[in-house]
Amino acid sequence: MRDYSIRAAGPDDLDGARAVMLDTVYRDFGSGYVPRWHGDIIDPAAAYLVPERHTLLVALDPHSGEVVATGALDSRGPAHPPNPRHVAERYPSGRTAQLRRVYVRPEHRRRGLARRLVAELTEFAVAEGGYRSLYLHTDPAVPGAEAFWRSLGKLVHDERGGPEDASGVLHFEIPMGR
Asked: Over the range 127-154, which residues count as b (16 or more CB within 10 Å of their CB) and which as e?
């Protein structure tokens, strides 16, 4: 296995991180950039580097130094709408660390990068204090996403087969190890 380095992103990493994120929303999600969902991708510094208790991690290819994976965490719980009311109430902003943008370029997948990013983001959430839970949502249509998140956390709500306005996403809680 390659010896990837993972670190907190700095200003020099933002273009590479943004490229990984945009490539993912276009290629894997098929949605492309949607401002109401992806504003943090365009300005990751404002979303993750400036606010206290937020972070953006990057994984770097050991040979090229290129950003090949990202993972972020912020203190915003899931909003209602579009998420179900009971999910938003269970994971309130300020007390919930939400995992975001855990993305790995296809040619670097299956090497443990996403798992390492989640482990480091979990450590960050615990060290920051004040977070009582670690939450994320994922699109089960993305190959491997559901199995990956099931291996790390507990499914708390499945929107598949719900009302017509349901997005079909899966909501997970990741143990914080306390």
From this structure: eeeebebbbbbbebeeeebbebbeebbe
pLDDT in tens, 102-138: 999 999 999 999 999 999 999 999 999 899 999 999 9
Buried b (16+ CB within 10 A) or exposed e, 80-109: eeebbeebbebbeeeebbbbbbbbbbeebb
pLDDT in tens, 12-60: 999 999 999 999 999 988 889 998 889 999 999 999 999 999 999 999 9
Token pair, residue 145, equals: 């996403």
Residue ranges of E strands in the chain: 5-8, 55-60, 67-74, 96-104, 133-138, 154-158, 170-174
Q: What is the pTM of this model?
A: 0.94
Residue 173, token pair as written in the block: 């809680």
Buried b (16+ CB within 10 A) or exposed e, 1-25: eeebebeebeeebbebbbebbbebb
